[in-house]
Amino acid sequence: xxxxxxxxxxxxxxxxxxxxxxxxxxxxxxxxxxxxxxxxxxxxxxxxxxxxxxxxxxxxxxxxxxxxxxxxxxxxxxxxxxxxxxxxxxxxxxxxxxxxxxxxxxxxxxxxxxxxxxxxxxxxxxxxxxxxxxxxxxxxxxxxxxxxxxxxxxxxxxxxxxxxxxxxxxxxxxxxxxxxxxxxxxxxxxxxxxxxxxxxxxxxxxxxxxxxxxxxxxxxxxxxxxxxxxxxxxxxxxxxxxxxxxxxxxxxxxxxxxxxxxxxxxx
Amino acid sequence: xxxxxxxxxxxxxxxxxxxxxxxxxxxxxxxxxxxxxxxxxxxxxxxxxxxxxxxxxxxxxxxxxxxxxxxxxxxxxxxxxxxxxxxxxxxxxxxxxxxxxxxxxxxxxxxxxxxxxxxxxxxxxxxxxxxxxxxxxxxxxxxxxxxxxxxxxxxxxxxxxxxxxxxxxxxxxxxxxxxxxxxxxxxxxxxxxxxxxxxxxxxxxxxxxxxx
Lengths: 267, 212
Prior knowledge:
The complex is a heterodimer of chains A (267) and B (212).
Chain A: H1 9-28, H2 34-61, H3 64-84, E1 88-90, H4 94-118, H5 126-157, H6 159-167, H7 172-175, H8 177-197, H9 205-212, H10 217-249, E2 262-264
Antiparallel strand pairs in A: 1-2
Helix pairs in contact in A: 1-2, 3-4, 3-5, 4-5, 4-10, 5-8, 5-10, 8-10, 9-10
Chain B: H1 7-10, E1 18-26, E2 29-37, E3 41-45, H2 52-59, E4 66-71, E5 74-75, H3 81-87, E6 88-91, H4 133-145, E7 151-155, H5 163-179, E8 183-187, H6 191-197, E9 200-205, E10 208-211
Parallel strand pairs in B: 3-8, 3-9, 6-7, 7-8
Antiparallel strand pairs in B: 1-2, 1-4, 4-5, 9-10
């Protein structure tokens, strides 16, 4: 197995100069994104360098406490991101609570399952646990945010239909059933599409990274298959749980549609 | 939510078939009490925004409210919500549809008399998006009646109809109320319509319901 070619800072600086050129071009074309481009590029440097430093020290320590702490921080940020991506979200702590709770249940359990399958020693080895959890959280976050956004937005738009069905004596489950199924489908589609396109339309990022770092393509492919399957399972279960919990909250104990429990994000 | 007894289990023999509101409050309305016996039509009038539709929604258990609402002596809160709404059924002012064809909105195996609301038998195969607002309103009434409710809460049921159909639907609903012993609460803006259909006229004034 080959090691990756060392990437000194001056080589990164050459690439960064290209971003600066793009910034100058966008300024000349008055696109109004030059500043955002430079700030985003700077954030990439700073954020990833910090993560690199944290991971370096984390990999060296293998303390379960530190790994749990990093995992918790990742989870809390993912929960916030889920909340921020919804146009209409449940009021109070519900939007954050459902997103975070669902990701905790689905991402953590599937990550532990994947770790058990891979079999590192110790089982919580940060070299495996943190990247796996990161990928699981990232994809589950996308699925959960999409499905909750679809659920609340469609329930809002079709409140007349939902209430008409309630008026005819249907249960809340039946009245919102179609909307719930549609929301679940929309949450699961990105992971399913990624699986269908893998290797033909796109080379998945993790596999590309492993190959660049010197891993044999066949081993990288095996890991990628494992990751894609577990990511699909994690985001799939997360989506189902989030939609069930979210739609439950849209009704009260008398099965009345309670859209007053939603708040609209002002953009 | 605890166990909720079904209406059949809690219905007491000999209870009069009456819709009874006791000290109901919802929105800006408070202390609303009235009764509508089976087979009777009570119209509900009042200015726009006075809370007529909200009161109907509260009776249908679609809106949180104070006070007690009884049908045949059973309190709304002691009954499963879906079972209450199967018996105490609301037809909103604007109808909503979720399948492509008319027939899919009616219970399977039930013969639907489209002629009763002035429509042809072939209506069942019509596409919803080709219906006029008047046809939708008549079909929404038929969709509710087909499910055999015991109380009907009608929110301006003839608002989208031409004058001939208004009279036809009024007569049809009056006949159905008597034949099927249905208690009807009918939100009517038009005083002439209230005169034609009502056994009892109720009006909302200053947050109270008054009999006129």
